[in-house]
Amino acid sequence: MSTPSSTALERVLAALKQEAKGKSSKVYNYVIPSLWNAQGYKGKEVIPTKDGHLLVNPYHFYIDVVEKLLQNDPQPGAVYSQSISQLTGDTSKGDWIQQATAYSMMPRASAAYDHDRTGTLEDKNLYGLKETGTFIKTLALLPYLKEMGVTLMYLLPIAAYTRMYKKGDMGSPYGVKDFYTIDQDLFDPITGDELTVNDQFKAFVEACHRLGMRVALDFIPRTNARDSKLVLSHPDWFYWIKKADEAVYKTPWVDGVKKLTIPEPEHAKYIYTSPEVLSFINLFQQNPKDASPVKWKAITEQVTAHPELNHLEVIEQETGLTVAPAFADVMNDPQPAWSDVTFFRLFLDDPLAAQPFLKDKKHNPYMLFDVAKSSLNPGGKPNKALWDTLADIIPFYQREFGIDGMRIDMGHALPESLTHLIIGNARKNDPNFCFIAEELQGKRAEVAKGQGYNMIIGDGFYMEPRLATFDYHGFAYSAAALPCPVFACAETHDTPRIAARDGGRVTAKLLTILNLFTPNTVPFINSGQEVYEVQPINTGLDCRPNEALLLPANDPFFGKLALFDKYAFHYTQDGFEELPRMLKQLSSFRQANLSLFTTKENYIPIWFASPRDPAVGFGYVDHTVAQPSEAYVVLGHTNTQAAETIIVDLRFVYEKLGVVSRHAQLVFSTHEHPRPITEYNFDSNWSLWMQPGEVKIIRVSR
Amino acid sequence: MSTPSSTALERVLAALKQEAKGKSSKVYNYVIPSLWNAQGYKGKEVIPTKDGHLLVNPYHFYIDVVEKLLQNDPQPGAVYSQSISQLTGDTSKGDWIQQATAYSMMPRASAAYDHDRTGTLEDKNLYGLKETGTFIKTLALLPYLKEMGVTLMYLLPIAAYTRMYKKGDMGSPYGVKDFYTIDQDLFDPITGDELTVNDQFKAFVEACHRLGMRVALDFIPRTNARDSKLVLSHPDWFYWIKKADEAVYKTPWVDGVKKLTIPEPEHAKYIYTSPEVLSFINLFQQNPKDASPVKWKAITEQVTAHPELNHLEVIEQETGLTVAPAFADVMNDPQPAWSDVTFFRLFLDDPLAAQPFLKDKKHNPYMLFDVAKSSLNPGGKPNKALWDTLADIIPFYQREFGIDGMRIDMGHALPESLTHLIIGNARKNDPNFCFIAEELQGKRAEVAKGQGYNMIIGDGFYMEPRLATFDYHGFAYSAAALPCPVFACAETHDTPRIAARDGGRVTAKLLTILNLFTPNTVPFINSGQEVYEVQPINTGLDCRPNEALLLPANDPFFGKLALFDKYAFHYTQDGFEELPRMLKQLSSFRQANLSLFTTKENYIPIWFASPRDPAVGFGYVDHTVAQPSEAYVVLGHTNTQAAETIIVDLRFVYEKLGVVSRHAQLVFSTHEHPRPITEYNFDSNWSLWMQPGEVKIIRVSR
Q1: Using CA atoms, how far apart are residues B493 and B528, in angstroms rounded to an integer?
Q2: Which residues of B touch A (CB under 8 A)?
Q3: Do A55 and B29 touch (CB under 8 A)?
Q4: For an engineered disulfide with B337, which of A638, B194, B325, B684 has Cβ 3.0 to 4.6 Å away?
Q5: Are A83 and A432 in contact (CB under 8 A)?
Q6: Residue B600, Cβ neighbours under 10 Å: how many?
Q7: CA distance B14 to B208
């Protein structure tokens, strides 16, 4: 039984046991993908099918999952609801991420499965259980991810998101409505009524920490759902238009400026002389509270008395006003407004550069690209109360759940002083808390680092898949020169799947494995990537016109995108075991040599006969030792279409070793078994026959 | 409720309703292939999945199946447990089969399905129900088969078969142990304890008759299981050897005779001078009853008191004797003895031709290829009591179940007088009962017809798949000349599947459809053929070395053969709907013109530019009419690899029509929509562009 001092995970176990009562003899035709059973549940009712499923009694299965998770107690008696840095006394100031392997997970999709095989992901399946992903179901994936070497669970947004103006059949988790509640979609009914979804998330973080895995979230301080909970308490933190004007509301065109220009103060003269802009600004209205305090009071009373009502709908009905939809923070972007989110009003006055143009024009607070890009176009009067609120959200997640890090969404659009406030507040609680900047350009890494970020996202997702044009070469060989790490990633939740790009699964395997060994990067696996999922989660970046239509027409998820719709990854599709098996194989190898591979100074670029050879190579020698005994050479063959001979130039490796060695051992290959390397060419060259997309890892000894 | 006067099908309904009580609210994750629901069950619990399944409550589903079957009452108030000939007053003497479309079904496999999707066909699945095929489950397939135009259900053996010396995990139904009981494997527990498997089969025949579908069985009078029930009552009807000699027991070699020679009297001089034959004959022993009547009495008493014992095992233990295994009825056949069956002792003395050689040699009754081929090598003293028994089996099935016809297995090996006795007895009960000869050679059709058979099997299964070598041409153009029909079949339960032969599904589609229109043949569909099943039921005839290994290694039925193992056809595999849809489309067309297509005299062969053109054609004009108004031309393109132009010569069709017509309409094509035909070349020629394996049906009007 759980006691008042029970941990969140212990309380999950107690609740599961309570709910399991009387359900042992019931017939459950409930399947999980066999991959979800890395912890090895062996209940007597288990039936494995040949197509990659296991039939289990779900109560018995999840009880077993939690019991085994609770057996992990690396620091006996420790409180696992603290961050791992707090647990271990780490002093890295967040740079622990340099040794991490990240798994980008969207729990709603990553832990979704058609457990009753009806072809649909029901909220209540034949057994009354939820089929979309929940934190309880995610627990079953943790042993599997740990085996693959994952040490950082990076979650897409999990806070309560809007259903108003929603896209798809579920809505996007990026339209956050309430920072302080985990979204109810992630609540799992299997634990009955006693636990809340916040409790379940707490148990998830505890489980991760018990396994030595850190947890980072995606924090979205720049935008918020139009029906944000804050609208009711602080209508003046938002921008307002007439509901009736929504149809004509569109981001205005600015003459004299190119498409997709980032707005800077020097553009003010174009922006604020544009007639289209001026009439756009005139669409904005005073906020409804200030417009009519009496009516506003009635509205708040009505909504408080009737929590089933959506407050924005009531406001729209009663006042004719609505919160203005957001749009991109660049000028002359042809994409339509974002119907589900709005921008926070970060400044109480207009951008400084705009003020000379507007000072004689009576107008209400308005939203515009320059306003949105407030990092470059700040006003003079910060909205202090809002800033304090935004800066207090990460501390809430630190206190309540003990998370380890945060990515800041659209951090590049925040005023620098707000960024400092947010990062500073979090580091007061946990000096080793990690921050990831949503910054794609390597040249901005220095700035991000200066702001306190530990790494930037980088442009791997764009460069890596482009093998034939040597963009991947460029990425792989330039990463080491950056002042902070980037993600070594072949895909993200916004991009095409790597298995759906040129070279298909061959490219996917090549990059997923090379990413474990690319210098000055953090390996990044996008959930589903490891089972060769082809359908993207979202088609936000670098997508082709048919990107959302990659599944066969008879697939239950044809045309669906996990970011908006009910979606489950193809965990049992043909070939699902391949990459997880290889990642598992490489995990202990990487772990055993972790500091070798993650210390920039150990890295030696490997060259080939010509810089245009279809191969990349990373050498590693321990730089702290005078006479190192060995080196590792990781080679990737970027021709995914044909086998060919690659001439590997080992001069610099031999220089570091201080000797030209012929003791070389193949320790891993995607295509062959370990064996001694005997294919010497000249003294410092090997002449290796490499299969399409092959990765070879070779140990060279003195 | 069922009453004493209820029909078998009504009793099934009553039993199902009884068993269904209290099961409405239970959760059933029980699937059927969507093809099985041609009757359109629409219970509120039904869930269709995108991969071709329906989740149903099995009780509700089968109740609906039976209720809808009972609504078929083509002769109101008739007794449907009579043969259809008896029901309708047919006078065809069994030649009704000339208008039939046969579906060859092995109920154990054809109605098998992994309803709980555990990857295994359980005897009791998660819901206590049987997953291998039963007659109750077969009822669900009848509306589907009727839609496809099937009018004759031709069943592989269904009588109780041996489990001793069994092959595979189920055993072959060809090792019949008891003629008078339907095998318990076909019993369906879904109707509870009240009905026997014989009752369930009776309900099946009734259901077929209500749908206007006839039922024919496979009767096996020449061989029997070694532990046949008759062994106990008539040990002298069998041949005996010492159990200890079984290891050395093999069909002897005869010098001076070629491999696979059919034994005729003239071979006696080679056979009975062979030392190997003589020592083989010496292996045979006196039957255990005559050898020791006292011991035999004790054995029969023991077995009667303990029905759980296998009587042959007891005999083997007590006497050291066993029933001799059978072997092929040809000489110098290298295949080993058939471990599960034996031959009946049809004559009390040796073959007449053998007697001069053996008269001085003391020996026991023995089995040999010539003895087996008793049609050509009869003895002088028929085993009258056995003959009477064998001749009384079909009458039992007529009386009990009202079946409509029989195929006689190895009929070619029966003495002609026994054949007459068997056929005569059956025709006394039902003069229009149909007999199908297991005769493959067209030249033997005349003999078979003389013996009272209505048709022979023929060699379609061998000739049809051989498109490239024009064997199919030979078959299609010579069938009309035979004195009785043959089966138009591209596969049987013994041969490779047509979808696994050259041209794959293209060939399968071409032949399955042409077979509906081939003159003087009975269309024959081997169960599973219509869903492009590739794994054969048995590898008995014309099979390649890898024939049993055609499924992917992760298929639950990889390496399994339905004749011996638990097996379910791939009713939901990709493309499963294609052939059933086309057959359904053609069924009403064929039915509307049935007498046109099945009257030999209406047939006109269609020729092309050259006899080696890759095309076959069948023309049909009503020969009873002086000025026929129309003709049908059925064309098949036997090039399954490429599209090409085919020159069709219509001279003979126009001759019969009495006019060169240009009013032609494409009424069906496997590849295009109906349209007028305009591709005229010369007056009597069309120049048709045909897709690979295309079938076109064209109506030519005056």
Answers
A1: 10
A2: 27, 29-31, 47-51, 53, 55, 116-120, 126-127, 554-556
A3: no
A4: B325
A5: yes
A6: 14
A7: 19
Category of B168 on φ-ψ map: left (φ > 0), alpha (ψ -120 to 50) or beta: left
**CA B447, B450, B453: angle at the middle one, nearest 5?**
90
- What is the spatial distance between Cα A178 and Cα B223, in angstroms, rounded to a whole number? 80
Digit-coded pLDDT (tens) for B102-130: 999 999 999 999 999 999 999 999 999 99
The number of beta carbons lying within 10 Å of the beta carbon of residue B427 is 16
CB-CB contact of A121 with A566 (8 Å): yes
The 3-state DSSP class for residue B539 equals coil
- Smallest Cα–Cα separation from B368: which of B283, B264, B277, B286? B277
State the maximum Cα–Cα separation within chain A, in Å, rounded to a whole number.
Answer: 88
Chain A nearest C-alpha distance from B533 (Å): 19
Strands (E), A49-189: 53-55, 102-105, 152-155, 159-161, 176-182
For B276-286, what is the mean pLDDT?
Answer: 96
Rounded CA-CA distance B115/B113 in Å is: 5
Compute CA distances B541 → A676, B44, B495, B634, whole Å. Answer: 51, 47, 5, 30
Q: CB-side exposure of B651: number of CA atoms within 13 Å?
A: 6
pLDDT at A4: 56
Residues counted in chain A: 702
Interface contact B120-A47, CB threshold 8 A: yes
Residue B690: partners with Cβ closer than 8 Å, 6 or more residues away: B615, B635, B637, B643, B644, B645, B646, B696
pLDDT tens readout for residues A268-313: 999 999 999 999 999 999 999 999 999 999 999 999 999 999 999 9
Rounded (10°) CA dihedral A306, A310, A316, A317: -40
Query: CA-based angle A201:A202:A207, to the nearest 5?
Result: 95
A47:B117 CB<8 A? no
Q: Which ranges of chain A have pLDDT less than 70?
A: 1-4
What CA–CA distance (Å, rounded) separates A280 from A250?
Answer: 8
The pTM of this model reads 0.88
Give the closest-approach CA distance of A571 to chain B in angstroms: 16
Nearest CA in chain A to B573: A554
- Please report, rounded to a whole number, the percentage of residues in chain B having pLDDT higher than 70: 99
Write out pLDDT tens, residues A89-143: 999 999 999 999 999 999 999 999 999 999 999 999 999 999 999 999 999 999 9
Are A114 and A121 a contacting pair, CB within 8 Å? yes
Q: Which two tokens stand for residue B146?
A: 């009727």
3-class secondary-structure state, position B305: helix
A221, A418 in Cβ contact below 8 A?
yes
Helix (H) or strand (E) holding A421: helix A416-429
Largest CA distance in chain B: 88
Nearest to B127 among A27, A31, A55 (CB): A27
Question: Residues of A near B (CB-CB distance < 8 A)?
Answer: 27, 29-31, 47-51, 53, 55, 116-120, 126-127, 554-556
Q: Is the CB of residue A637 less than 8 Å from the CB of residue A692?
A: yes
